Amino acid sequence: MKTFLKTNITVKDICEGFVYNELEGKGLFGLSGKLTIQPEYQRNYIYASDGGKREAAVIESLLKGYPIGLIYFNKVSENNLEVLDGQQRITSVGRFVTDKFAIKDENGMEQYFGGMAKDKKAKIWETKLLIYECEGTESQIKEWFKTINIAGVPLNNQELLNAVYSGPFVTLGKEEFSNSQNANIQKWSAYVAGSANRQDFLERALDWVSRGNIGDYMSGHRFDKNITELKKYFNGVIDWVSSVFTDVESEMRGLEWGRLYETYHKKSYNLKKVSEEVQKLYGDPYVKNRKGIFEFILGGSTDTKLLDVRVFDDATKKSVYKKQTTKAEKKKISNCSLCALGHDANKKKIWKLDEMEADHVAAWSKGGKTTIKNCEMLCKTHNRAKGNR
Ligand SMILES: [Zn+2]
Q: Ligand 1 centroid to 304 CA: how many Å?
């Protein structure tokens, strides 16, 4: 990767041709059109929120001669740079010099740029910014991002990938998946966690269609002029989930639906039974992990590990062990009931507590409770041989 440190670019240069889109709430261009400040895929301008304290602080820093931190550009082509980090600061400056907001002067009076004294204006115009321009591959840029300490809110992974693979595909993807005005977002939110603004829906759609290889997929489709496959796959997954599980539960949000779709979408399900089973498991106080209910059912309701079913506590185990062992010693048989039935050397073996495990007499999956009445201690070998019933 190549990096160039630029120290001669002034605020005036950056703000040349600055355009702020009021409707979308973002700064668009600077450097006479050469610089894209907040490309399609970027998060919107947030410095004007919280009463404008942050954008005012940027201007006050310039007036006092304080540095406003490093700014990073990504060189997309000879005549096209994009702001990787620093778009909030640049937009603040651009908005100020175009009189979009005022700061308070020494006397607490509102002051717009247009009404400022010449020397103050000049001070702002002539401030030189510290800018790193970089040109490189995705992994190089990522590595570089990790290495340097970036001021402000760093880009998240998907925002960074959008920057690296910017082009028609990202633009279309963002229109569909990162637009909080899209009426589908609400429906998708039942299954996908996060926010459209921070690219969580786009990331999930890409993750699913690429089976986890988002970077490769974006690289391969970078210049595509459609997102047909991406949309089709994503909608396919959502339609599948919402048809198999007719009830919408909050724990469904953020599950690995792409992986579950790949594994189970060819299996047929009795929707009424599925719904009943969801309700039954939701009502079961022994199920500790409700997020696991859906995969448990999809997989045929056998893998109880997914549910993290409550286990017998130590007091219960000790008490049951003691009772079983006293009885077994009297009868001169093993304290493991299954060993006692056998014909080998263990027939009369008295196991120690730590050599045994607790088992549900009536299987949990068949309605057996995790209570002392339903607890039996078995030797480890026999307990494990029983497995999931
Ligand atoms: Zn045994």
A: 22
Q: Write out pLDDT tens, residues 311-342.
A: 888 899 999 999 999 999 999 999 999 999 98
- Give the span between the Cα atoms of 82 and 311, in whole angstroms: 55
Q: 355 CA to middle of ligand 1, Å?
A: 10
Distance 18 CA to ligand 1 centre (A): 79
Task: Round to whole Å and give the CA distance between 97 and 125.
Answer: 9
Residue 323: CB atoms within 10 Å: 13
The length of the chain is: 389
Phi, psi at residue 357, to the nearest 5°? -135, 155
The answer to whether 339 and 377 are in contact (CB under 8 A) is: no
Cα separation, 56 vs 226, whole angstroms = 41
Question: Torsions phi, psi of 250, nearest 5?
Answer: -65, -25
Confidence of residue 167 (pLDDT cuts 50, 70, 90): confident
In tens, the pLDDT along 336-388 reads 999 999 888 899 999 999 999 999 888 887 778 888 999 999 999 998 887 64
The mean-pLDDT minimum among 120-129, 206-215, 227-236, 367-376 falls in: 367-376
Instruction: Name residue, tokens 């020397």.
Output: 119
Span from the CA of 359 to the centroid of ligand 1 (angstroms): 12
How far is residue 131's CA from residue 328's CA, in Å, rounded to a whole number?
A: 80
Ligand 1 centroid to Cα of residue 357, in Å, is 10
CA dist 238 and 187 (Å) reads: 9
Report CA torsion sign: 261, 263, 264, 266: positive
* Nearest CA among 318, 310, 323 for reference residue 356: 318
Do 208 and 197 contact (CB within 8 A), yes or no?
Answer: no
User: Which residues are CB-neighbours of 37 under 8 A, at least 6 positions away?
Assistant: 18, 26, 27, 28, 29, 30, 83, 87, 90, 91, 94
b (16+ CB within 10 A) / e for 236-268: ebbeebeebbeeeeeebeebebbebbeebeeee
Q: Is the pLDDT of residue 272 over 50?
A: yes
